[in-house]
Amino acid sequence: MAMPPVTIPPCPGTALGKDVTFQYKRHNDGDGTLILRWDDREDHIHDREVVGVIYEPQGKRPDEVQPQLILGLVTSQTSPEATKLRFSFEPLPVTALPLNYLNRHLLTKTPEHLFVSPNPDGTRNLHLVVSTRSGVGEAQQYYNDVLKEVLAAVDLNSETYHVHVTNSDKSVTNLVEQTIRPRADKGIPQTILLLSGDGGLVDIVNVLLLSEQTDAYVKPTIGLICMGTGNAMFNSTGLNRDATRGLTSVFRGVPRNLPTFTASFSPGAIFLTDEGSKTEPLPSESGHGIVHGVVVCSWALHASLVADSDTTEYRKYGAQRFQMAAKQLMAPEDGAAPHVYTGRITLYKNDNQGEEYAEEIPDSKTSYIVATLVSNFEEKLTISPNSEPLDGQLRVLRFGDISGADVMRLIGMALRGGGHEKDTMAEYAPINGLKIQFDEADARWRRVCVDGKIIQVEEGGWVEVRRGTRDVVDLVA
What we know:
Number of strands: 32
Mean pLDDT: 92
Helix content: 10-25%
Low-confidence stretches: none
Largest sheet: 8 strands, antiparallel
Shape: globular
Strand content: 25-35%
């Protein structure tokens, strides 16, 4: 909600040891600007670039004004054409900041989830995971130049945490299997600062849900620092409220339960990996493949565009890769009409008394279908407008047998914040789950997406999605 603009009267202080006049202005959009007027120039520090303000140790004289430090973050593009950003940390020592500015930004203490005790043998329980393959490859530079420096500013040096730099798509899985899960089962509190996209979250959740938790189990806490492409969780939980990529929320947020869903597959389903050139078996439970997720399970256009765009060439374009792949699918080079997918869909809903019933969709043709726990797949793509952050409610959005032009019209509405969910060509509703039984001869049209992972279902196979029943991690939000 827009806030009325507020301007705080100027007040004297110091910055970098020199006299300066501060003035703080709040804008209609809730953002604000701290203006620093020097003798020879004027500088602006925007709220969206500030992680927080901390007090530095008192000076030698008892009457000396206690210094403060603005933890500021600066971003810049590597080149005008590049999608990759460079990040820098620019702390600014000051005194006598305006009270209203302090009220908004002062970090009175470092949150408990960052001060996790080490084990008796000295091994550390604060883990920093740097996902080098996420998005366009910004994570390592962000850690080196920003995160490490901000942590040091609040007295968390490299001796208090362990850094894990990923070198394969199994790195996060291996860390959780070998370290995180065994310690959680022993009741040891742990925090993971995850410099990643949604994929890192999914890897953590899948390993933790592979086995039953012990009675002593303590949920690990995850602080998500956004480095992915679509970044659905980041864009759906308020972590994108500023330009710090979620670092402000790591310091100001609180741990909240991360809802999950479970996708069960018919026995012949397989993972597609390495740009679709290789396959892997799914984890199995009761003879069925099982994949857990936190964002979306999809089929039809959404699954196809995620699968087709997951290549080294496409990833160079960041989030634009999804739109590029969608255009190829909606306007095939051979001039053919876009594919309309065939399969029988059953939705599981609650009636007015809270009793579950099955609703089979009579139309076997589908252009687009997602079952999701989040509102936004991208910053401006509001696919499920009724979803609230971490509310745990699955919702389905489906377009039936409609033209490519109508599909793009509805997606265009989602890109403008919504309205598509009320269109007569769309079905949008809260659900307990859904089941799809595929009727496609070509394997290309039997691909399912679970949070970016691509599963190919055998001919005549099926997938069933249900809200998860076990809570295994907290997300700081």
